[in-house]
Amino acid sequence: MIYLYSLQDEALYQQLLQQALPQYQICSWPQQVNVAKVRYAVVWNPPAGFFQGMEQLQAVFVLGAGVDRILKRDDLDPAIPVIRLTDAGMAQQMLEYVLYGVLHVQRGMDHYLRQQSHRQWQPLHAAEAGQTRIGVLGLGEIGGRVAQSLAGLGYAVAGWSRSGRQWAGVENFAGSAALPALLARSDILINLLPATPQTRGLLDGSMLQRLPQGAALINAGRGEQVDEAALLGLLDSGHLRFAMLDVFQVEPLESVHPLWSHPSVLLTPHIAAMTLPQPAVAQIVANLQALQEGNTVPGLVTRQRGY
Ligand code: GLV
Questions:
Q1: Given CA atoms 146, 172, 186, 223 in this order, what sign does their dihedral have?
Q2: pLDDT tens-digit profile of 62-104?
Q3: Identical fold at 2-88+275-292 and 90-267?
Q4: In Å, how far from its chain's centre is CA 272?
Q5: What pTM does this model have?
Q6: Ligand 1 centroid to 144 CA: how many Å?
Q7: What is the dihedral of CA 261, 252, 98, 84, to 10 degrees?
Q8: Which of 264, 193, 184, 266 is nearest to 226 (CA)?
Q9: b/e sequence 69-98, b meaning 16+ C-beta within 10 Å
Q10: How far apart are CA 115 and CA 294, in angstroms?
Q11: 64 in ligand 1 pocket by Cβ < 6 Å?
């Protein structure tokens, strides 16, 4: 049996999984099942205790790219393989989201919005793409494709990752020692890192301070990687010009949070790259087959690494 827990589109997921895997019984929470019979779970942040009693569980497929919350659970045996989505339609969405933020800054839309509210007609100089230095943190399937596509559009793109993965047209910075140099050359910093013990709190005040005067931050990685108080301070002082934020330390963002009304902030409710049912199920089915055949499973999470 495959037990599904998805926060939305559960009927569609159930139907797609059943079509692709007719040999399995697909059940969807909150349907009550004999959990001892569950072989595979397909989930996005199920409630505490969800995995309790799943004695036959062979693997958990996560309906998202980030597995930070799944890895922290105490009801899931660490020996059970966890498989996340890699790209599955998210890289394109992330590129669109990030590109919106990049153009907002590069073409001065933040300035023009301010001018418009004062009925002010004032052409401004726009930096050329080649003169706009973009830094991308995280060069996996999503970050790498975003970095490479922005480089293809003519931006001066550098990327930073743990392993130094190469992407065409992207200047490579690898390892923690290289982070300050990457920040110092980033007019627009794009965070697409997974949340791991190593990346938690990475963008604290001292790191954000290393961005050049007037830089912008786009965060579509995880909220806990950014010190929000320090970010607000740097926006207030004008050291940072703009922040576009999709993720927050606490989600949903509390209604009293100062980020809501900050004039230099554009924020969205964790929608930068949503899981698309069709490509997600196609990837899960392919990964399940690879797992059963003993082949390499793309997206198989290394617990120690955190992704
Ligand atoms: C979304 O945040 C995801 O991890 O897929």
A1: positive
A2: 999 999 999 999 999 999 999 999 999 999 999 999 999 999 9
A3: yes
A4: 8
A5: 0.96
A6: 16
A7: 170
A8: 193
A9: ebbeeeebeeeeebbbbbbbbbbbbbbebb
A10: 60
A11: yes
CATH superfamily, with its number, for domain 2-88+275-292? NAD(P)-binding Rossmann-like Domain (3.40.50.720)
Confidence of residue 7 (pLDDT cuts 50, 70, 90): confident
Quick check: is 107 catalytic?
Answer: no
Residue identifier of the C-alpha nearest atom 5 of ligand 1: 64
pLDDT at residue 271 is higher than 90: yes
pLDDT digits (tens, 9 = 90+) for 18-44: 999 999 999 999 999 999 999 999 999
Distance (angstroms) between ligand 1 centre and the Cα of 84 equals: 10
Q: In angstroms, what is the span from residue 66 Cα to ligand 1's centroid? A: 5
CB-neighbour burial class of residue 149 (10 A; exposed 0-12, middle 13-18, buried 19+): buried
Q: Whose CA is nearest to atom 4 of ligand 1?
A: 66
Q: Is the CB of 66 under 6 A from ligand 1?
A: yes
Going by C-beta distance under 8 Å and a sequence separation of 6 or more, which residues neighbour residue 204?
Answer: 227, 230
Q: Which percentage of the chain shows pLDDT scores above 70?
A: 100
Q: Compute the distance between CA of residue 235 and CA of residue 205 in angstroms, rounded to an integer.
A: 11
Tokens of 267: 């924020």
For the chain, which residues make up each domain, given as ranges?
2-88+275-292, 90-267
Domain 90-267 falls in which CATH fold? Rossmann fold (3.40.50)
pLDDT of 167 higher than 90: yes
* Average pLDDT score, the chain: 97
